[in-house]
């Protein structure tokens, strides 16, 4: 076997192992964002595909995990957008095969009915014990903008105190 | 919803049985090659088709230019304009393909990811302007072909008058754009607006938090 092929198969093995360890997290995203069984299946496959492709070129375990979470969030967002675009998605009623699972899903859906997608994402990342800084990294400019605004505010505050200290 | 309640939900969920598992981990090999994007958001194949088609048409135009210069000795400026438009269209689509960078698109953070998708749609919508100009060129060629066989005098007078040709081209291009606007562009505009609205919603909620 070529050293290149060996490296490639090792990388694929790593991705497979990582996805095997974290595949339950994909189910969590699906539970939060999919309305029925058919959507659950579709979203699971797209997240798994995006995650495996994202992780192909990353080296460290931490980087791979961040890319995995990004794939989960991004694909969930796209899923929500396409749901909003298709007019008849509300009519779809793909029930889960297990009645217990269906019951749990119905209960969860009722509880998260009023949550916005951002809140669902935040909830999912918090449940996965992702640090606030990392949440900002996964969320991108929106949360990074908040962070920057906070820093700017602090920077403006410091000269003000300095001025007060000098004059008083 | 609180985090504690969500954790309770997760704990209360029945263990996912095999029947609820849509994909087995052994099917992963296929996933490394498949695109994760749905047809609505995946324009790669369409862009590739456009590049291939414009390359083919460019070759045909080059052949026509060679024939025309060899046959009449005149300057086929109309064909040069068409070739320039085709080259521009091809360049625009190649640039769009590199800009979209589909294999690494999903690895971006959420807001830049949505931003990129919105930009891809925006550029794709802009490309329809060049496409309608091309449609105008080809419609004019068709019109001239029809006139040549039916009314040779009219064909000659149009061919000799550059202003007429430009006016006809402008009219046909605008008509093609109006047609594309109602049959094709609206679909992509709707998707772009949906992505933009969603992105703004996410940014607004993040700002409030």
Task: Please specify the SSE layout and strand pairing.
The complex is a heterodimer of chains A (168) and B (209).
Chain A: H1 3-33, H2 37-55, H3 61-85, H4 99-111, H5 117-127, H6 132-139, H7 141-167
Chain B: H1 3-12, H2 28-31, H3 44-71, H4 77-100, H5 102-105, H6 110-150, H7 152-160, H8 162-208
Describe the structure.
The complex is a heterodimer of chains A (168) and B (209). With 168 residues, chain A is mainly α. Chain A is built from 7 helices and no strands. Chain A has helices spanning 3-33, 37-55, 61-85, 99-111, 117-127, 132-139, 141-167. In chain A, α2 (37-55) runs antiparallel to α3. Chain A is globular, with a radius of gyration of 21 Å. Mean pLDDT of chain A is 74; it is low at 150-168. Chain B has 209 residues and is mostly helical. Chain B has helices at residues 3-12, 28-31, 44-71, 77-100, 102-105, 110-150, 152-160, 162-208. In chain B, α6 (110-150) runs antiparallel to α8. The longest helix of chain B is centred in the last third of the chain and has 47 residues, at 162-208. At the A-B interface, α1, α2, α3, α4 and α5 of A face α1, α2, α6 and α8 of B.
List keywords for this structure.
heterodimer; A: 168 residues; mainly alpha; 2 domains; 7 helices; 80% helix; B: 209 residues
Q: TL;DR?
A:
Chain A is mostly helical and 168 residues long.
The helix count of chain B comes to 8
Helix content of chain B: over 70%
Give the domain tally of chain B: 1
Helix and strand element order of chain B: HHHHHHHH
Described by the principal axes of the CA atoms, the overall outline of chain B is: elongated
For the record, the count of structural domains of chain A works out to 2
Q: In sequence order, what are the helices and strands of chain A, one letter per element?
A: HHHHHHH
Please give the radius of gyration of chain B in angstroms: 25 Å
Largest interface: A-B, 67 and 53 residues
């Amino acid at each position: 076997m070529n050293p290149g092929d060996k490296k490639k198969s090792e990388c694929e093995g790593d991705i497979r192992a990582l996805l095997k360890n974290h595949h339950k997290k994909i189910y969590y995203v699906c539970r939060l964002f999919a309305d029925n069984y058919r959507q659950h299946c579709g979203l699971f496959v797209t997240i798994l595909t995006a995650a495996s492709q994202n992780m192909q070129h990353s080296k460290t375990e931490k980087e791979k995990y961040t890319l995995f979470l990004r794939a989960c969030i991004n694909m969930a967002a796209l899923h929500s957008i396409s749901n909003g675009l298709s007019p008849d998605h509300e009519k779809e009623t793909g029930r889960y095969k297990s009645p217990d699972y269906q019951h749990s899903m119905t209960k969860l859906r009722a509880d998260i009915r009023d949550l916005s997608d951002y809140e669902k994402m935040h909830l999912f990342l918090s449940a996965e014990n992702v640090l606030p800084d990392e949440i900002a990294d996964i969320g991108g400019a929106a949360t990074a903008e908040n962070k920057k605004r906070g820093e700017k505010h602090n920077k403006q505050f410091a000269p003000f105190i300095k001025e007060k200290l000098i004059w008083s | 919803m609180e985090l504690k309640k969500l954790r309770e939900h997760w704990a209360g969920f029945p263990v996912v049985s095999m029947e609820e598992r849509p994909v087995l981990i052994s099917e992963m090999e296929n996933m490394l090659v498949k695109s994760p994007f749905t047809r609505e958001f995946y324009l790669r194949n369409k862009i590739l088709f456009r590049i291939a088609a414009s390359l083919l048409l460019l070759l045909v135009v080059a052949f026509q230019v060679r024939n025309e210069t060899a046959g009449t000795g005149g300057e086929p400026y109309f064909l040069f304009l068409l070739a320039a438009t085709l080259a521009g269209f091809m360049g625009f689509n190649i640039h769009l393909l590199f800009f979209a960078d589909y294999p690494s698109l999903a690895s971006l953070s959420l807001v830049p990811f949505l931003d990129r998708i919105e930009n891809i749609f925006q550029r794709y919508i802009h490309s329809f302007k060049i496409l309608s100009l091309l449609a105008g060129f080809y419609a004019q060629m068709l019109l001239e072909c029809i006139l040549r066989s039916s009314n040779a005098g009219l064909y000659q007078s149009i061919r000799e008058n550059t202003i007429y040709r430009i006016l006809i081209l402008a009219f046909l291009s605008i008509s093609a754009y109006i047609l594309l606007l109602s049959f094709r562009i609206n679909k992509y505009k709707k998707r772009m607006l949906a992505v933009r609205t969603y992105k703004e919603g996410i940014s607004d909620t993040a700002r409030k938090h």
